[in-house]
Amino acid sequence: TSDKTIRELSIETTKENHHVNEGQEQSGAYPLDGVPTLAFHSISTADFQFNIEKASDIIVETVEEFVNKIGNGRLVLVDISHGSKILNVVKSKAAIKNIDPAKFFTFVGDITKLRSGGGLHCNVIANAANWRLKPGGGGVNAAIFDAAGPDLDTATKKRAGSLAPGNAITVPLPSRSPLFSNQGVTHVIHVLGPNMNPKRPNCLKDDYNVGCKVLHEAYLSLFENFASIVK
Ligand code: AR6
To answer: What is the average per-residue pLDDT within 164-191?
Structure first.
C-alpha cells in the first residue's frame, strides 16, 4: 500500500463505494470531473420516518421521469453507511427499470466529503432541510451546515425564510465556503420532504396518500432545481 499514490488509493476507494457492476466500472462510469452531478440523500426516510419501500418506489419513478431532462448531468443517491437499506433497494429497482447507470447510480459516502473522501466530484448537493431552513437539528442538515460554515446560513437567509413540504430552493455557495473550496460544491439545494414523525412539525399521521404525493413533489422540485443549474 505504501507504494501507491494518493490517486490510486482514491480510485480504489471510489470503486469500493460505487454501487455499479464490473462492466460499468470498466467503461469508466465512475467519477469524471466536469460532469454536472447532483448528490442527494433519501428524503424523509430517517428522522422523518417515511416508509423505505414506498420511498424507494418514488425515488426510482421520479429519477426515471427526470433522468433524460438534465442534459449530460448525473443524479447520485448517497447514504453514509455501507449497510444502507434505501441504497440497496433503490439500486435493485433502478436495475429492473434499466435506468442508465451512467446517469443515475448509488454511492456510499458522507455527502459533505464526497470528493475528498470518495473521489466523487458532485458540484451540487441536496440537503434535507427543516421548514425554518435553520442549521443544526441532526442528520444531513447539521452535517451540511457544519461543513459549509456560516456562509451557507447567510446565503440561505438571503433566498428564503422558510420552506413548505414538497418544495426545494437553490442556494449558491460563496467560493470561500469550505464545502466549495475543499469539495467543489457550488450549490446546495434545500428540500423539505413529508414528515411522519409525531415529534416533528407538520406530522402527516401515517397518511401515505398525502405523504407519497408530497415526497414525489419534493424529488421533482429537487431535480428541477438541479436542471436549472445545469442549464
Ligand atoms: N452523508 C450522507 N447521507 C447522510 C448523512 C451524511 N452526512 N447524514 C445522514 N444521511 P435525515 P429526513 C442520510 O434524518 O429523514 C433533520 O434534522 C440518512 O442516512 O437527515 O429527511 C432536518 O433538519 C438518511 O438516509 O433527513 C429535518 O428536520 C438521509 O440522509 C429532518 O431531519 C436523510 O436523513 C429531515 O429528516
So the answer is: 97
What pLDDT, in 10s, does the model give residues 9-45?
444 445 556 554 332 322 233 334 579 999 999 999 9
Give the Å distance between the CA of 133 and the centre of ligand 1. 14
- Provide ipTM, 2 decimals: 0.98
The per-residue pLDDT for range 95-145, each reduced to its tens digit, is: 999 999 999 999 999 999 999 998 999 999 999 999 999 999 999 999 999
Specify the number of domains making up the chain. Answer: 1
Residue numbers of the domain that contains 177 = 6-230
Q: Is residue 1 part of a domain?
A: no
Q: Is the CB of 112 under 6 A from ligand 1?
A: yes
Whether 173 is in the pocket of ligand 1, judged by its Cβ within 6 Å, is no
Phi and psi at 117, nearest 5°, equal -95, -25
Residue nearest to atom 32 of ligand 1 (CA): 47
Evaluated on CA atoms 20, 25, 29, 34, the torsion sign reads positive
Q: Provide the H-helix boundaries in 85-195.
A: 85-96, 114-118, 139-148, 150-159, 178-183
Q: Whole-prediction pTM value?
A: 0.90
Residue 145 C-alpha cell reads as: 451546515
> Is residue 218 in a domain?
yes
